[in-house]
Amino acid sequence: MTTRDVVFPSGRQALYERNRYSPAIRSNGFLFVSGQVGSKEDGSPEPDLENQVRLAFNNLNAILGAAGCTFDDVIDVTVFIVDPESTFETIWKIVPEFWGNAPHPTLTGIGVTWLYGFQFEIKVIARLPETVQG
């Protein structure tokens, strides 16, 4: 069995170990990032939706940075939104703060009914820069 090349952001390893998943795995020149939510350091949800979305992106950026990437390296995005009909506009006005300029990554948006107390989750696949592909 191949050992997974796991990427942990600073200060959150215990949270991932407690929940039994890897925040990201490097494989074949790509970084596969688990869904990130707007969780505080203790894992609890940020109650304000706009701040929760910002915190989800900040948590995502911490993982990307730990792998030597930025959001510019992201090629595919999947977002999960609770009650998108009522929350989409609030969420999507935050996205440009983090998204960058065109051309943008591919995007799949999925409406869900439950995210463990969160309202927004983002998972991505990024291309690793050649200097960190190993």
From TrEMBL:
SUPFAM superfamilies: YjgF-like. CDD domains: YjgH_like. Gene3D superfamilies: RutC-like. InterPro entries: RutC-like_sf, YjgF/YER057c/UK114, YjgH-like. Pfam families: Ribonuc_L-PSP. PANTHER family: 2-IMINOBUTANOATE/2-IMINOPROPANOATE DEAMINASE RIDA (PTHR11803), RUTC FAMILY PROTEIN YJGH (PTHR11803:SF44). This is RidA family protein. It comes from Pseudomonas hormoni. The lineage of its organism: Bacteria, Pseudomonadati, Pseudomonadota, Gammaproteobacteria, Pseudomonadales.
